[in-house]
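Recap quiz, item 2
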Amino acid sequence: DAGITQSPRHKVTETGTPVTLRCHQTENHRYMYWYRQDPGHGLRLIHYSYGVKDTDKGEVSDGYSVSRSKTEDFLLTLESATSSQTSVYFCAISETGTAQGTQYFGPGTRLLVL
Amino acid sequence: QKEVEQNSGPLSVPEGAIASLNCTYSDRGSQSFFWYRQYSGKSPELIMFIYSNGDKEDGRFTAQLNKASQYVSLLIRDSQPSDSATYLCAVQPGGGADGLTFGKGTHLIIQP
């Protein structure tokens, strides 16, 4: 498995609370991604990063922010969690961002917003 | 809106038979195509990728790509009960670092 860890693996929080999820990689890959997976929607891209301090929005970025201060860490923050953000969150990494860049996924974080 | 379509299934196949999974995509400029397998409660695991028209074989798996028809398929030969999972088709737009666009997945059941 690619050296990707996510923390926490499970979290229960309350509406309106800020939440930060961490993705850590040991592969020194340049590209990192955050996806969410929901029944009936499949995996959807939230944000991605193409280098330290270089990030961009994905398909479902509203309500989320990201930061990448080191190559190995990509943080996803829910500024004020809502029940609609209850989901499974996956981080992915890619060595290249070109058309041939294969993405490898971390183990996921299950988030429940009450 | 870039879309990737898959039959959600479940697709039930007898053990030892060939399982055929299909995927269509809307973005004609897509360049890279991936198949991931996902067991319940686990993360997606890469099975195969394909970039060029035609077939690509890896063990019991064959990916097929037809860009003119905007169609990707995955064949699993000699299906085993351990192949029972959800298979995700993913498409990457041409160039750049954009993330993958995923289909909703096909649930495959291999019957012993």
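The longest strand of chain A covers residues 42-51.
The two ends of chain A are 33 Å apart (CA to CA).
End of item.
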